[in-house]
Automatic annotation (TrEMBL):
The chain crosses the membrane at residues 6-28. The keyword Transmembrane applies. Belongs to the CDC37 family. GO terms for molecular function: heat shock protein binding; protein kinase binding; protein-folding chaperone binding; unfolded protein binding. Keywords: Chaperone, Coiled coil, Cytoplasm, Membrane, Transmembrane, Transmembrane helix. It comes from Poecilia latipinna (sailfin molly). It is found in: Cytoplasm. Its main location: cytoplasm. This is Hsp90 co-chaperone Cdc37.
């Protein structure tokens, strides 16, 4: 008889919603639920703030390294020195903030372990979002393996990476990476920078600045992944969420990194162009070398003015007069250099005479 009474009671409970079932048994007051929700939100806020602080610190450290390198290579400049001190102070403050957030996170996790168990603490999702649980593949590669990997990747995906480099809207960039998550990697970031340099060399400055923007987007995603210790393919959406709702400090950090990249691209393009010009000049010089291995242009510029004029007018008598005015030793020196450079061909001149 008791069983007959108990079974309908159980069946009536089975149709209750899970939330009511749990709280029917555990009797968790609403105030406690609100408190737990606030506790969970605080944990998420701390995780987000810590990740952002680490990202800002990495950016500031890159700027500091760049400025220190400039100070070593170039002359002292008051404006650059002031900027260096400003960035040094920023790095020091961010390092302090990083330690503070880390301490708060550790304290929060200790408090989390002390929470009383109920259906909400047992079954709810942890404070860490799914992105924090994606572990990146860790594999040490040799320099040769990295070069080959980059070459293969570029050959396969150059068209897709260039398309990403031309996108302008945040939503378009996010959607394209969602459709092509394999592009979220170091190879893409490196390719975009190389593409920037190529555009700058070709004097396509607007295209350079556009691709530079996307290169910084990719770099920020990779920095965020390193900070969170996750695969970058699992956190690029978080970057776009951050940047679309960015405060002034976050946006300023992005803009600073973009300006630094554009400056580095311009200097690198200039250096490459100068190097190419030197190579071309050396090739032309090698082609000009005379039978004795001397450059006729260099020899001509070293001659006395009267001898130069005789070559300009192709006047052998004027050349002979100019030679007679020199002491014999100096005359022989210049004549031999003219022969070695091909400016003077004795056999040909004798035939003409």
């Amino acid at each position: 008889h008791l069983v007959c009474l108990y079974v309908p009671f159980l069946l009536s409970l089975s149709i209750l919603p899970l939330f009511h079932m749990s709280h029917f048994h555990l009797c968790v007051p609403k105030a406690r639920l609100d408190k737990m929700a606030k506790f969970q939100q605080r944990g998420e806020d701390l995780e987000s703030s810590f990740a952002e602080c680490c990202r800002l610190l990495q950016g500031a450290q890159r700027r500091l390294g760049y400025l220190e390198e400039q100070m070593k290579r170039e002359e002292e400049d008051e404006e650059r020195e002031a900027e260096l001190k400003k960035v040094q102070a920023e790095v020091k403050k961010l390092e302090k903030d990083e330690k503070l957030f880390l301490g708060l996170l550790e304290e929060h996790r200790r408090d989390e372990k002390k929470l009383p168990w109920n259906i909400d603490t047992i079954c709810r999702e942890g404070f860490s979002k799914s992105v924090f649980n994606i572990q990146p593949e860790i594999k040490k590669e040799t320099q040769q393996e990295k070069v080959e990997k980059h070459k293969t990747f570029v050959e396969k995906y150059a068209k897709e990476m260039k398309h990403f480099g031309m996108l302008r809207r945040w939503d378009d960039s996010q959607k394209y990476l969602s459709d092509n998550p394999h592009l979220v990697c170091e190879e893409s970031a490196n390719y975009l920078v190389v593409l920037c340099i190529d555009f700058e060399i070709d004097e396509k400055h607007a295209l350079m600045e556009q691709v530079a923007h996307q290169a910084i987007v990719m770099q920020f995603i990779l920095d965020l992944a390193r900070t969170l210790n996750v695969d970058p393919r699992g956190c690029f959406r978080q970057f776009f969420s951050n940047i679309k709702t960015a405060n002034a400090e976050y946006q300023n950090a992005f803009d600073r990194e973009l300006d630094l990249l554009k400056e580095r691209v311009r200097k690198c393009a200039q250096a490459q162009m100068e190097g190419t010009m030197k190579e071309l000049e050396e090739e032309e010089r090698q082609k000009r070398l005379g039978p004795g291995g001397l450059d006729p242009v260099e020899v001509y510029e070293s001659l006395p003015k009267e001898m130069q004029r005789s070559f300009d007018e192709k006047n052998s008598e004027m050349l002979q007069d100019a030679m007679n005015k020199l002491n014999p030793e100096e005359g022989r020196y210049h004549l031999q250099r003219c022969i070695d450079s091909g400016l003077w061909v004795p056999d040909l001149q004798e035939e003409e005479d």
